[in-house]
TrEMBL record:
GO terms for biological process: fatty acid biosynthetic process. It holds the Pfam family Acyl_transf_1. Residues 22-316 form the Malonyl-CoA:ACP transacylase (MAT) domain. InterPro entries: Ac_transferase_dom_sf, Acyl_transferase_dom, Acyl_Trfase/lysoPLipase, Malonyl_transacylase_ACP-bd, PKS_NRPS_Biosynth_Enz. The keyword Phosphoprotein applies. This is Malonyl-CoA:ACP transacylase (MAT) domain-containing protein. GO terms for molecular function: fatty acid synthase activity. It comes from the Bacteria. The keyword Phosphoprotein applies. Keywords: Phosphopantetheine, Phosphoprotein.
Length: 343
């Protein structure tokens, strides 16, 4: 059912719905994201430290900037946003797994798919961190670019595209992201606003998911990486379908993530069309939860959604309260969470 159709009233599910994890990507980063859990939640802390350690000499710098009130390198910079999003996604997912939660599906957006690949067993976390850092360094030296979120379908935007500006992501039927070099993208934004279209700049200084970042594609980095078949179904936002064994072990598939468009909306349609789920966003903010809440199957009550963290940073206590509130909703759904002490 297209997510724009009218839907009937909510219906009560017969039992606990299986959990699917949503892992956000570029644009979800913000200052102090999830920092209230570091040093407070032991599994989260250990998982973050594992990623920092895997990054070698840059790991302590990354951790310092993440925790700092005034980071040396801004968190929106690609060498901070990409590894920190990956680390937080990974650490939050490890936290809920330690609770005893057993997700039956994974769906990531952009770099969130790399984190999902680790959870599914396609990558070792250290290999994934090395691949990601190579990607971030390559992206960092490219000419300035950006992304633009537009309240319109992808087909409607075709007349506005120019030079290297392309559709970088399809998040929902009327939520599309454009990507391109800074100058052409600014011109497209001006044209859209002049035409009465609603659009906003995304927190990115790189033209993710566009040919403008083709120099970031590096299949050779995977030569020493062992890729495996997913042990948990992974819905790919690049194929808008469950990740096949063939694609999972194809280095070119993973290497092309920076340039290929993200099809999160179609992938979410496919996931929710395959059954009813309790969707849990395991990453900073609530961007994917927000998209999922507007989906027809969620609006009618067939599936449900919650997030582990607040929509924006509101201090350490807010992070902790949000995490425990999400645990409460999971228990209310019927998931016992034996690894989490009752409280």
């Amino acid at each position: 059912m297209p997510e724009t159709e009218a839907v009937p009233g909510p219906s009560a599910p017969a039992g606990p719905r299986p959990v699917a994890l949503l892992l956000p990507g570029q644009g979800a980063q913000h200052a102090a994201m999830a920092t209230g859990l570091y040093g407070w939640e032991p599994v989260f802390t250990e998982a973050m430290d594992t990623v920092f350690d895997a990054l070698g000499a840059v790991g302590p710098q990354l951790r310092d900037d993440w925790l700092a009130e005034r980071p040396r390198v801004p968190l929106d910079h690609v060498t901070r946003a990409q590894p920190l999003l990956f680390a937080v996604d990974h650490a939050l997912a490890r936290t809920v797994l330690a609770w005893g939660l057993e997700p039956v599906a994974l769906l990531g957006h952009s770099v969130g798919e790399l984190a999902a690949g680790v959870l599914a067993g396609v990558f070792d976390v250290r290999d994934a961190a090395a691949v990601l850092w190579d990607r971030a360094e390559r992206l960092a030296v490219l000419p300035p670019g950006g992304m633009l979120a537009v309240a319109a379908g992808a087909a409607e935007l075709a007349p506005f595209l120019r030079e290297d500006v392309v559709v970088g992501a399809v998040n929902a039927p009327r939520q599309t992201m454009l990507a391109g070099s800074a100058g052409p993208l600014a011109a497209v934004a001006a044209d859209l606003r002049a035409a009465g279209r609603t659009c906003r700049e995304v927190r990115a200084t790189t033209a993710f998911h566009s040919p403008a970042v083709g120099a970031a594609v590096n299949s050779e980095i995977y030569a020493g990486v062992r890729l495996g078949v997913p042990r948990t179904p992974l819905w790919s936002a690049y194929s808008a379908a469950p990740l096949t064994a063939e694609l999972a072990v194809d280095p070119d598939f993973w290497a092309r993530h920076p340039v290929d468009p993200v099809l999160f909306g179609p992938a979410l349609d496919g996931l929710l069309g395959s059954g009813d789920f309790f969707l849990l966003e395991t990453g900073p903010g609530q961007s994917l939860a927000g998209l999922a809440r507007r989906h027809a199957r969620v609006r009618r009550g067939a599936s449900a959604v919650t997030a582990l963290l607040p929509a924006a940073a509101r201090g350490p206590e807010a992070d902790r309260e949000a995490l425990l509130a999400a645990a409460g909703r999971l228990r209310a759904e019927g998931h016992p969470l034996p690894g989490l002490a009752a409280g």
